[in-house]
Write a structure and sequence with these properties.
Belongs to the UPF0065 (bug) family. InterPro entries: BUG, Bug_dom1. Pfam families: TctC. By secondary structure, the chain is of the alpha/beta class. The chain folds into 2 domains: about 190 residues, 3-Layer(aba) Sandwich (D-Maltodextrin-Binding Protein, domain 2), CATH 3.40.190; about 120 residues, Periplasmic binding protein-like II (D-Maltodextrin-Binding Protein, domain 2), CATH 3.40.190. About 40% of the residues lie in helices and about 20% in strands. The strands form 2 sheets. A 6-stranded mixed sheet has the order 2-1-3-10-4-11, with helices on both faces. Helix 5 packs parallel to helix 12.
């Protein structure tokens, strides 16, 4: 794969045609509210983060930034709507791993091209993923769960929010490193999955901290490990999965992107507003409460991050023959 791949190159093309009157328009931007498209339903981790950062973006850009939830197809519906939007700075996407790094492998056809249709703005944050089991299950550690899965192939169920979702990829990584044989139970979204999980119909899941950690504190489930390579400062008392499964590391992340050909001057304005928002102590505190760690990167570094993630997960997904029918 050539170096200029996912999200790269788009920013370079973005300035074509912006001269004269267009430059004056850029100086006047923004003159109306800005739409931040989130590819998942209200209440999920991405929606929560989108609503946390949008006021700060709006304050720094001098215009309202509002969240529009466009859920469906693992974030593809939202990504398609952004790809087709005018590249005028008034439509942004809260980017997630699915459309940019996972879905190109698990979907045979996408209504957008992640290589060409988006301009990178910033990596915003990583969201802590955790391995959890219902409170009535016997396992107290990751090792106990893995040992039992090895002793009883096909007996333990793992849920995910859908084929190709980050929770599914997290499970595939666990299976590839341990050789365990468990039953994958995919759902159409996190809401239905959590309903069955909390009802005890599922044995384990790997999901986002903002959803699972409050339930652990309330005694409704038990978190066995965090997915980061090292113990998280957000939950230093919880072991990492890698302490039982060497080499295990995964981070769910959120970024900010715009339609390709969005003018570089606007990309830079939004990027600076995002950096300033993430540096705000009040915003950082709220993100921490949601198990999210600010990880600000600029457009080029963000594009490199997406490329690396795509190259990491594609072989794993292909080996598992993970496909959405």
């Amino acid at each position: 794969m050539r170096r200029r791949t996912f999200l790269t190159g788009a920013a370079g093309l973005a300035g074509i045609g912006w001269s004269g009157t267009s430059r004056a328009q850029a100086q006047a931007w923004p003159s109306k509210p800005i739409r931040l498209v989130v590819g998942f339903a209200a209440g999920g981790a991405s929606d929560i983060v989108g609503r946390l950062i949008s006021p700060g973006l709006g304050e720094r850009l001098g215009q309202t930034v509002y969240v529009e939830n466009r859920a469906g197809a693992g974030g593809n519906l939202a990504a398609a709507s952004v790809a087709q939007a005018e590249p005028d700075g008034y439509t942004l996407m809260l980017a997630t791993p699915g459309p940019e790094t996972i879905n190109p492998t698990v979907y045979d056809k996408l209504p957008f091209d992640p290589r060409k249709d988006f301009a990178p703005i910033a990596l915003l944050c990583s969201i802590l993923d955790v391995l959890a089991v219902p409170a009535d299950r016997p396992w107290k550690t990751v090792k106990e769960l893995i040992d039992d899965a090895r002793a009883r192939p096909g007996a333990i169920t793992f849920s995910s929010s859908g084929i190709g979702s980050p929770s599914h990829v997290a499970l595939l990584l666990l299976q590839s490193l341990t050789g365990i044989n468990v039953v994958h139970v995919p759902y159409r979204g996190g809401g239905p999955m959590m309903g069955d999980f909390l009802a005890g119909r599922i044995d384990a899941t790997i999901g986002t901290g903002p959803v699972l950690m409050p339930l652990d504190e309330g005694g409704q489930l038990r978190i066995l490990g965090v997915a980061t390579a090292e113990r998280s400062p957000l939950a230093p008392h919880i072991p990492t999965i890698s302490e039982s499964v060497p080499g295990y590391a995964m981070a769910n992340w959120l970024g900010l992107a715009a339609p390709a050909r969005t003018p570089p001057v606007l990309i830079e304005k939004i990027h600076q507003a995002a950096l300033a928002t993430l540096a705000d102590p009040a915003v950082r505190a709220k993100l921490t409460q949601q198990s999210a760690v600010p990880t600000p990167l600029g457009p080029q570094d963000y594009a490199a991050h997406v490329k690396a993630e795509y190259e990491r997960w594609t072989p794993l997904l292909k080996a598992a023959k993970a496909k959405v029918e």
